[in-house]
Each structure stands twice: as C-alpha cells, then as structure tokens.
Amino acid sequence: MSLLVKLAERSSVCLALLGSLGILAMMLHIVLDVVLRATLSVSIPSTLEIVTRYYMVTLALLPLAWVEWRKQMIFVESLSGMFGACVTRWLDALVALLSAGIYLVLVVATWNKAVEQYDIGAYVMSLDFPMPVWPTYFILPLAFALAALVSLVRIPLIITNNENYDRV
What we know:
Blueprint: H1 2-40, H2 47-61, H3 64-69, H4 85-120, E1 123-126, E2 129-132, H5 139-160, H6 163-167
Antiparallel strand pairs: 1-2
Helix pairs in contact: 1-2, 1-5, 4-5
Keywords: Cell inner membrane, Cell membrane, Membrane, Transmembrane, Transmembrane helix, Transport
Function: Part of the tripartite ATP-independent periplasmic (TRAP) transport system.
Family: Belongs to the TRAP transporter small permease family.
C-alpha cells in the first residue's frame, strides 16, 4: 500500500509541477507575442490556438490529482458536523469512492474521444498551417485516471486515519 501512496503522491506532485511549468511557458509565449507585435509588428503564428488548445487544457487538468491528494477540492460540511469522527471518516471514504467512480467514467469517455481524434488526425487551420490538436485530447484521460488513482488510494488512508495521509 505504501508503494501506491508514494506513487500517487509523487505523480500528483509531478503533474502539478508540470502545470506550473506550463503556466510559465504560456506566460512567456504570450508576452513574447505581445512584445513582438508591439515592437516589430510581427506575431508568433498560432498563438491563440496554442494557448487555447494546449496550454489552457493542460493547466486546467494536470493539477487535478494534486488538488485531490491535498484535500483541497470544494466540499460542503453542512451535515458532517453532526456526526462523530468515525462516521465522518466513513463518509469521506464513500465520497472518495464516488469521486473515483466518476473519474473512471470520465477516463473511459475521454479516452474514447481521444482515440477518435487521433484516428482522424484532428487539427485546426492556423494561417494556412494545419496544427494538430489530437494530442491534447489525451491529457484529459491521463488527468482523470490519476485523479481516480489518488481517490482510490486515499480510501484506506481515510478509513484508518493514517498519519502519513494527514502530513501530505
């Protein structure tokens, strides 16, 4: 179990770091495009398409597992205050199981769409250049799969009130 915990934790952190690097790359890309356009009247081709089809999708979804692991998803505690710690742990485990199920449904749905887009070689035209966009469709199933893994790994940690889980 500790191997799965370490794998989930490290994978989540790695994807969050990749997301951070993506923010930096997007910022540099946009700033460079604006500076070039303002000073030399030259624009970087396909900036809009790259930002919307690559950066934004990646930045929105890669940190999903990290947020799940750090227990920073939005949640409502309207009734849980009425229950004891044991019942609350079991409810949290049930929510983690439900979340994992939803993530797995999203994995299957987005994987099928990604394969479909790969098969047709999906692209967008940008300045008479066909820019492939099918690779970004594979980011979704990857992000959802890791979030499902994190949710599943958290269940026994929640139930046993494992201190390793609380320190993360």
